[in-house]
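Hi,

Apologies if this is the wrong queue. I'm a grad student, and the batch job for MarR family transcriptional regulator from Ignavibacterium album produced an output file that my downstream script rejects. I'm not sure whether the problem is my script or the file. Here is the sequence I used:
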Amino acid sequence: MADNIEPVAELICELTRNCNIKEEYFASSFNLSPTEVRFLKLLAIKPTYSIKELRDILKLTPGRITHILTSLEDKKLISRTLDPTDKRVTIVSLMPKAGPLISNLQQNYRELHNRILKSVKEEEMEKILSSLEILVDVFKKWVNQK
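Support response: The file is valid. Your script probably expects a header line. Output copied below for reference.
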């Protein structure tokens, strides 16, 4: 196992670099930052989050969260409101204008991944999926130990 750690670590780094390039390319085509796209993808799953929930999920500093939310607010994609049951909590919600953009984002994201993965054979895709599930699980366990 020790002999495989270094090549696995290098492959993970290379995959991360390539994923970052893909995310930059994708986000720039919508005039957004990759982090703004991640926020909008989260809000597509669940339409409201507290700032604390966003901070916990995305592992970003409060200052970075504020910067991104301000940018999305300036673009009229999200709004921030006080929780009526607890005035200390700020709730982030999608604005109506964001709906079509998110649908477009999701469609383009699927198309991009289809283009990237179109040459992968079905049996290879199954191996990739299984391996990625293992990697995500291993990294989640590591993150939760911290």
